[in-house]
């Protein structure tokens, strides 16, 4: 249990000029890394225990170690800055407030995996972030931190900021690579994995913004420093994004393993006069939790043991005034809209989930409809081509598990019990 924050990536966010090179410093970690053997850099990241911050939690150093060496092919680093999962809102403020941590991390990572070209694939709608990234990259080139012979080490690196067109599926790493190559973004069959045949069929590392931005601090302070935070298998710190019915929503950087109860204490609790009803531990693709789960350690193992996933630590908090059926409908509409259409279970399943949920939310459904949505979700989960389909089933299964009564209440009263025209609260029925 921990009650303290560990600001590292967020340490300078209060400074009005935090995004400038003057405020950030001289890329001392990159200078140090470029004086090391590239394999020693990979080993340091392995020793730190850093696991991917994009959702799946794959060990970062191990991923880098999969890049074949001496293969004569170009290697690429692609940073996944597509951040589009409902509730996830950490990479965008990170790139706005501290873009140089990302650029420095890119230099260190590219050196370690022997890549001389790197890309930041950023979500197209966030024009303010794209501008800021361009400015940071320009500053780094002007200082000689990018380009040729960086720090006199003989290492060359070109960094390109590429904006997508705003599709959630382009955050899936292989769809992202297709999009970056100029094709329609749809997931590729794996294997081969990107480490073997990624961008332009060459060995490629795809990592999340926060994963890469964490690397300079590991090189600067040492693997043991990082591994000294967090829990046994989920090391280090991460940004926890609290949104929704919270007194002080925002980004709380803390060791993995902190609980929602502790985070809420720091965030001033649920908004005044209300109680927590349900919440997502890691975005809408992770099964919802309730007030029973306030003391679950927010690390990969702790959340998994209770039937959900840590995901992107996007803690969306909903109080007792929220209709769970309406919330699940909204998320499902998102998945149906963002389904890329490549595979039948997800393309058709999300469409039909949306239709049945609409009926349920209006109070026009029957108990059979609950069986139907569970059945549709069962036919998507594990049968879809990529994890978007699986993610779409999380709100369905978990909401029916915890809030079956609330679904039933909708067709008992022939409408939404939270609709002011029907009744604001069940107690008034
Ligand atoms: C539909 C979908 C959307 C995703 N969106 C993102 C995203 O926006 N950012 C991200 O880093 N990972 C996203 N991922 C996960 C990536 O496929 C990949 O696992 C991740 O970029 C790896 O980086 P990491 O190991 O540093 O976490 C998404 C996955 C899926 C299935
Ligand atoms: S699961 Fe959905 S998003 Fe993924 S490939 Fe199939 S249709 Fe496309």
Automatic annotation (TrEMBL):
Signal peptide: none annotated. Residues 325-370 form the NADH-ubiquinone oxidoreductase 51kDa subunit iron-sulphur binding domain. It catalyses: a quinone + NADH + 5 H(+)(in) = a quinol + NAD(+) + 4 H(+)(out). It is an enzyme of class 7 (translocase). Its cofactor is [4Fe-4S] cluster; FMN. InterPro entries: NADH-UbQ_OxRdtase_51kDa_CS, NADH-UbQ_OxRdtase_suF, Nuo51_FMN-bd, Nuo51_FMN-bd_sf, Nuop51_4Fe4S-bd, Nuop51_4Fe4S-bd_sf, Soluble_ligand-bd. Pfam families: Complex1_51K, NADH_4Fe-4S, SLBB. Keywords: 4Fe-4S, Flavoprotein, FMN, Iron, Iron-sulfur, Metal-binding, NAD, Quinone, Translocase. One of its GO terms (molecular function) is 4 iron, 4 sulfur cluster binding. It comes from the Bacteria. Its EC number is 7.1.1.-. NDH-1 shuttles electrons from NADH, via FMN and iron-sulfur (Fe-S) centers, to quinones in the respiratory chain. NCBIfam families: nuoF_fam, PRK13596.1. Belongs to the complex I 51 kDa subunit family. This is NADH-quinone oxidoreductase subunit F.
């Amino acid at each position: 249990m921990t009650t303290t924050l560990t600001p590292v990536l967020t340490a300078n966010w209060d400074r009005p000029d935090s995004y400038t090179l003057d405020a950030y410093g001289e890329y001392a970690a990159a200078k140090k890394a470029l004086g090391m053997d590239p394999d020693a850099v990979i080993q340091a990241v392995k020793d730190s225990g850093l696991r991917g911050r994009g959702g799946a939690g794959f060990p970062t150093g191990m991923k880098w170690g999969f890049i074949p060496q001496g293969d004569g092919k170009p290697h690429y680093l692609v940073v996944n800055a597509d951040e589009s999962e409902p509730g996830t809102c950490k990479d965008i403020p990170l790139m706005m407030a501290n873009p140089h941590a990302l650029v420095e991390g890119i230099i260190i990572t590219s050196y370690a995996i022997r890549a001389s070209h790197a890309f930041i694939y950023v979500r197209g709608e966030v024009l303010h972030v794209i501008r800021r990234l361009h400015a940071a990259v320009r500053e780094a080139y002007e200082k000689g931190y990018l380009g040729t012979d960086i720090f006199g080490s003989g290492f060359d690196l070109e960094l390109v900021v590429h904006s997508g067109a705003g599709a959630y599926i382009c955050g899936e790493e292989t769809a992202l690579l297709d999009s970056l190559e100029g094709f329609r973004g749809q997931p590729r069959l794996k294997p081969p994995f990107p480490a073997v045949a990624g961008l332009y069929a060459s060995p490629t590392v795809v990592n999340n913004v926060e994963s890469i931005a964490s690397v300079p601090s590991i090189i600067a302070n040492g693997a043991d420093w990082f591994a000294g935070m967090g829990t046994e298998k989920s090391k280090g710190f991460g940004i926890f994004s609290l949104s929704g019915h919270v007194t002080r929503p925002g980004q709380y950087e803390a060791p993995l393993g902190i609980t929602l109860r502790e985070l809420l204490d720091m965030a001033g609790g649920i908004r005044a006069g209300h109680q927590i009803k349900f919440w997502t531990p890691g975005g809408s693709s992770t099964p919802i939790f309730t007030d029973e789960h306030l003391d679950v350690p927010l690390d990969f193992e702790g959340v998994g043991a209770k039937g959900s996933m840590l995901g992107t630590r996007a803690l969306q908090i909903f109080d007792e005034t929220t209709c769970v059926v309406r919330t699940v409908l909204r998320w499902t509409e998102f998945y149906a809209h963002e389904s890329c259409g490549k595979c039948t279970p997800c393309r058709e399943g999300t469409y039909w989930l949306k239709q049945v949920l609409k009926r349920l939310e209006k109070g026009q459904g029957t108990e059979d409809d609950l069986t139907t949505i569970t059945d549709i979700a069962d036919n998507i989960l594990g049968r879809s081509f990529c994890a978007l389909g699986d993610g779409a089933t999380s709100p369905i299964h978990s909401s029916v598990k915890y809030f079956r009564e609330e679904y039933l209440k909708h067709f008992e009263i022939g409408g939404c019990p939270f609709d002011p025209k029907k009744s604001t609260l069940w107690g008034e029925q």
